[in-house]
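Page 42, continued from yesterday. The earlier attempt failed because a stray header line got pasted into the input along with the sequence. Redoing it now with the clean sequence only.
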Amino acid sequence: MNKRKLLALVLTGVMAISTLAGCGSSDTKTSDTDVKASETAETSDKNVLRVGMECAYAPFNWTQDSDTTPDGSKAVPIYGSDYYAYGYDVAVAQKLADEMGMDLEVHKVEWSSIGISLDAGDYDVIIAGMGKTAEREASYSFTEPYYYRDNCIVVKKGSAYENVKGLSDLAGTGCKVTTQLGTGWVPLLDQIEGAEQSGNYETTSECFMAISNGVADVCVVDLPTAQSAALTNDDLVIIQLDADDSFTGDDEMVNVCIATRKDDTALRDKIQDAMDAIGWNDKAKMDELMDTVLTQQPAAN
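This time it went through. Structure tokens are written below.
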């Protein structure tokens, strides 16, 4: 092999090595950039309180077309949509986000999958009028109550059940009963002796519709939700049963708490600290806010 050929081969090898080295350098820089972008995104996410709720459970939460409310409060955009959410849950979530220096992000989800979506990481917190039950405590971490509610029954105006005072008045009547699926009210239906299970529904709105059209005679639900429905439906009558002739074992549904994933106790504690800081353990404050939001909901809710 002559000197010219040997020199050409050496130069070709040097160029190949340089090219490979250049590719390696470029890949490293891209990788570093991607890592930094990922770290930035994670840091940003930590400044967002991502909350899951139905946005269809007035007065706790509902969907509306604009960000305005009658009293000047601001509704919050629903993530991934052109609509807004407001209600007691949204107002409390905003107070807590402000206290923690975080932005509020509301995610709309069906009640039947609200826990599944939390576990999947679609959002980090449930603030959705959820009662803290022993069964749920096995799967999620809860704060102290952010609202205390009473239960009631709803019947149709002019029906045979309009003057009911207690469970004994319903016993043996064969009344058709209903409530919302996946709630602590479902087991209470069995306490109405001789009642006929007419089927339960995904939303409370469907439950009230069943009462109005006669598909069901009695709906077991919480008082604020019943009051909200009665504002726009004259067919409904709300009955608070006599204390000594009412449901037993419904205490769990009275305490409405905020839930995080079971192992996310750090976020749970951070939210609890914010609740304590703004004094959200005062039932008078809770009732005052609930009374206010009841007047803010759109007629469609």
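Notes: The CA atoms of residues 106 and 208 lie 26 Å apart.
Reminder to self: strip header lines before submitting.
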